[in-house]
Structure prediction request, 195 residues.
Amino acid sequence: MPKRVDHDQRRKEIVEAAWRLIGRGGFEAATMREIAAEAGFANGALKYYFSSKDDLLAAAFQHTFFRVNERASHTIEGRTGTAAIRTLCLEMLPLDSERQIESRVAVAFWDRAASSAPLRKIHRDSFAIWRKWIEDELETARRNGEISSGLSDRAIVDTLFYIITGMRVLPTLEPGATRPEAQLEMLDSVLSRIA
Prediction:
């Protein structure tokens, strides 16, 4: 009997292989040959799962957002309002080796997204999900009396995104420049001003 192949699982393995290579060595390291080797496939096998390298790279970019969302959905469980917002923000920050790799991958993709409409759309759609998530929790926080500042939801979300984006970029460009403790202090300082 022929071996049954889980094509979704194989596709995921290829995406994760590309993602790891980009995290270690940037786009130069993510050739189709290297991605296939990292995933444990023959070079030509990737064509069955992705029509082009651009499609594969787009899936790897999306994977970065999926990882944050998956972790956040578990860590936020039971939290609401400002506690949930802080938890989501923590999942985006490069506070440990896993999230540092995510930040390196995100920064690498942001450069490419500047000249790629499909990658910009992935970025825009993913940030829209995070924006909605935070706005829903802001509504809860206001109802519960956690926020008394007159800042609009848009101003709060924009401030958080600017701070988090900067904190993802700086440690990528200057490893060790921003300690996790300093990132937490900065985030908590911003959140306290919002409240």
About this structure: The chain is about 75% helix and 0% strand.
